[in-house]
Amino acid sequence: MLGSIAQRKGRFGSARKTYSEEMSELDFSQLDRIAERWVGRTAERSAARDPLAAAQNVTLRVDRSAERALRKGHPWLFADGIRDQSHDGRAGDFAVIFDRRRNFLALGLYDPESPIRVRILHHGKPTPVDAAFFARRVQGLAELRAKLFADDAGTNAYRLINGENEGMPGLVADRYANTLVVKLYTTAWLPHLRHVVRPLSRLTGAQRVVLRWSRGATRALNSLGESELPGELPGELPDELPDELADGVLLGGLALDGPVLFWENGLRFECDPCRGQKTGFFLDQRDNRARVEALAGGKDVLNTFAYTGGFSLYAARGGAKSVVSLDASAPALQAAQRNFEHNRAIPGVAGVHHETLRADAFRSLAELAAAGRDFDLVVVDPPSFASRQGEVERALGAYASLTRLALGVLRPGGDLIFASCSARITSDDFFACLHAAARRAGRPLREIERTAHPADHPVGFEQGAYLKCIFAKVP
Ligand code: SAH
Q1: Cα torsion for 328, 331, 337, 339, to the nearest 10°?
Q2: What is the mean pLDDT of the chain?
Q3: Is the Cα dihedral 294, 297, 303, 309 positive or negative?
Q4: Domain tally for the chain?
Q5: In terms of domains, do 301 and 370 share one?
Q6: Pocket of ligand 1, candidates 219, 282, 305, 356: which has the most ligand atoms within 8 Å of its Cβ, to mutate?
Q7: Residue 424 lies in a domain
Q8: Residue 269: CB within 6 Å of ligand 1?
Q9: What does the pLDDT look like over 142-154, one tens digit per residue?
Q10: Do residue 106 and residue 62 come from a single domain?
Q11: What is the structure's pLDDT at 239?
Q12: Which among 95, 100, 252, 442 would be 20 to 30 A from 154, CA to CA?
């Protein structure tokens, strides 16, 4: 894992530049060149000072139901909602959307490859979308987050920009100490990326910015997956991406020579922002991890789908007697072990018996039960099982199986913590499914709490709500 980061070192001229504390701005001139090349137009024109007048805009008229959705502020225009269109646009063109009476409705980023044909940047009255527009939006979000974590000296990793939930559709940005990770869900951002990355790195004082691409959630039930994010639809990486835009490259700043270290609630974690799942870490589980810490004292804990041991570390600090981290990914479990090392100074972490188990969770839970191993607290945090609407039934079946299997290793009176990160499974269906499975197993759940999104992952529209979690006592 580390080798691959090292190999990326010095891939760009800008990355080889010596960093000094005084250097206030990172060099993103490469992004300017990319923007020009990508759409084959000049930097000035792509800034599109007046998109309504600019010839390269795609103008669209939409049908009644798309119109209704856009008036309510929905961030997506699907291809099948388009009635007519000025011409075939390119990824990253601005799309100007009119209603059936030719009134301006919204403006967004056009993507001819995606069923989400336009990702909306602005609803309501016409407005210029230019570098200043993006800078204002980025500044608003960066300031919001800085305020949110201002009193939290123990945390320097959080989501800065949560995609369509915050007016930046198809773009997510996470901060890990001085490293920013920008993850894109559409190539439509490429000509505009510099207008986001420059202000974001300046406002956060970042040392480097890493680019990640969403692969879409096409994974099968038992394969390695990452949780679903707003805007994630089945699909492959854009295959026309040049090397300097590959998944995990450095867009600017200091090259990485190892994992990034950061703090979360006073715990030290490492992550690999270039190759790790999601953007390197599951920041969205921060609050749930803290809840597990409060419950873990004196307990034998099983953390299934443990990834790099997030829940495990919190359980250990909370005084757990023993912790098992179970995951199918060997690199993730190696990082989990290192994360325990990073926190050796904490008595709970130093004292706990920690074991990693590399296995398929479904099979392993059955084997643990057959071997008579049991636990006082079990965390179940699987990847998204439903990347498409057609997979919802199968996903609910998997949640039911996992409930039964987890109860099979949970002692009477134990705690079950079970999360779902699939936007396509509603929280009602998810909680009902778990309750039904537990009843069938003869061990009905007594709920302690239901939780949803942490404050740095705000929900701005229906499909943006993906995370739900139940905390329950089991007889
Ligand atoms: N709880 C973690 C995040 C879990 S992400 C945290 O707080 O950081 C989901 C994890 O499930 C990934 O680490 C992935 O490697 C793992 N995974 C996916 N399918 C699996 C399977 N069938 N068995 C075990 N682990 C699996």
Answers
A1: -110
A2: 87
A3: positive
A4: 3
A5: yes
A6: 305
A7: yes
A8: no
A9: 999 999 999 999 9
A10: yes
A11: 58
A12: 252
